[in-house]
Write a structure and sequence with these properties.
The structure is a single chain. This protein is of the alpha/beta class. The chain has one domain: Protein-Tyrosine Phosphatase, Chain A (Alpha-Beta Complex). The protein contains six helices and five strands; from the N terminus they run βαββαβααααβ. It has a five-stranded mixed β-sheet with strand order 3-2-4-1-5, sandwiched between helices. It is globular and about 40 Å long. The mean pLDDT is 96.
Amino acid sequence: MSERIYNCSLDALDIQLVETGATRLISLLNSEIMIETPGLIKTNNHLRLTMSDIDEPMDGRILPEREHIEQLITFANNWNRTTPMLIHCLAGISRSTAATFITLCTLNPEISEIQIARTLRKASPTAHPNRLLIELGDSLLKRDGKMIGAIENLGLGTIETEGDPFSLPAKFLK
């Protein structure tokens, strides 16, 4: 259970923190709803990435940037995997599933992007990872377009306004 990554919406966050025992948290929210670090999490174990769920510039919105993904990759690489990690966004569908996919690609450089993407889809039929986040992750991890290709190959999945919580192993077997 400790080497697992959990994903949920903001509404499910408090329950998921208790149920999973996660001690590391990644929040991907816009500035108006960004949360403070929950009491169950140490401040240095909470990565807060302030961004909007967009993939093109929009007035009044914060476009995901390379720096966000650099921070995500560093945070993932610094995880000792002795306790679970929880990743969330507002709905648990777009930003958080993109961050989960990028984290899994970071931790599993020898595993194909399509295998990771298919495992993500099986765990979450509603996952619709933010395209710009995936493109940025693909570039930083030097995956040569394979990450975005794998996500595009999945299609839209089931359309919902909020995704159900799910989890995946942090380490994949070849």
